[in-house]
Amino acid sequence: MTNHKDEKQPSYELQTIEQPKKQKKKPSGWFKPFISGIVGGTLALGVYVLTPYAQHSESSTANESSTKTEAVSTNDTSTNTSKSTAVQTSNSSSSISNMVENVSPAIVGITNYQAQSQTDTSFGDVNTPFDESQQNQNNSSQEEETGTGSGVIFKKSGSKAYVLTNNHVIEGANKLTVSLHDGKTVEGKLVGADPLTDLAVVEISSSNVTKVATLGDSSSLRAGETVIAIGNPLGEDLSRTVTQGIVSGVDRTVSMNTSAGESSINVIQTDAAINPGNSGGPLLTTDGKVVGITSMKISETGVEGIGFALPMNDVKPIAEQLLAKGKIERPYIGISMLDLEQVPDVYQKETLGLKSSQLDKGVYVKEIAAGSPAAKAGLKSEDVITAINGKKVKTGSELRHELYTNTKVGDAVKITLIRNGKEETKQVTLTQSESKEVSS
């Protein structure tokens, strides 16, 4: 993953974009289903030929003839140029259409089913008293659709095929189903997931898989380059919706709250329309290569066209490790931490001994896990970590980003810290992260 410049995150809400559950109508239910009206706007591209108007004076016949000849010549040139432009536009649209038709069989929909507990009160008068044991017998648990998202088939091996999607699309599922290009629905099996990068791999039978997407090189993307997103916005009724936009920015870093804690994620910014249900779908170049997995957007009044996709060069190693081990092995330090900017300035100065130039710049160590790499290296609570291997870190998410992307289990890293107002360096040998561990 690419190193990024430290930057203050703006205040906005990042919204993951899986499709919410569709409510089914029940005789005595609390909700009524509704269908949102969709208004489509069409932008017509026209070619207008501007013919020069020649004012004629009462001059000689020869001059009139010359002027008319010049006007016709100019008009012919303009018309030819316009026809050329129209042909180029048509060819470009046709090329994208062909690409979409070619790659669409590799795009799937994913439905997340979770257990929902229900109480059956249909057995007579609801006012009739009954004991607790009878009530328990009428409690039932069934799996209900809680959300849908998208995915892309990226590998096929023997009788199995594998789908890339977002962790938040499949998280908490008791059952997964995958809808294919031909309308068939098959069972999906979770191979592995990683909340901190919001990625997951789902296994399906390869018997109906006719296309595997080609993974591209996201490092070659440039701002302004045309990209296409394909997914299932608002569920399967609008499956494989195609939207087009440009790369608005590369090498962006955003912070996102996950079930495993806050994570700093490298993303591609795009203005291609992505909506609930697009999560996990591909972001494609015009030649049909997958360069990103659409994941989130900024959800705020007055903000439009700011969506994000996980870069394929970052996705590939995560996907490979999930396929091989079903989980991501991350290096572990063994600290509980807090962004220094959340610690009162008075405490930073008087208790931690920080100078004015050092305030709010680093990670405050709250606790050290017994027997952890940090404990063995001599780190203590109330230390302030300011850098890893010379790379400055101002927040906990930046520390995790540096730790998880540029180091590995077994590495000996140099931790720069401030203790009692003085800068020190400790060498920490990283071990594997503990299960369910959300601190670093």
Automatic annotation (TrEMBL):
Gene Ontology molecular-function annotations: serine-type endopeptidase activity
Segments traversing the membrane: 30-50
Keywords annotated in UniProt: Hydrolase, Membrane, Protease, Serine protease, Transmembrane, Transmembrane helix
Positions with biased composition (Basic and acidic residues): 1-10
Signal peptide limits: none
Keyword Protease: yes
Pfam families: PDZ_2, Trypsin_2
Biased composition (Low complexity): 73-96, 132-141
Protein name as catalogued: Serine protease
Organism name: Bacillus zhangzhouensis
Native organism taxonomy: Bacteria, Bacillati, Bacillota, Bacilli, Bacillales
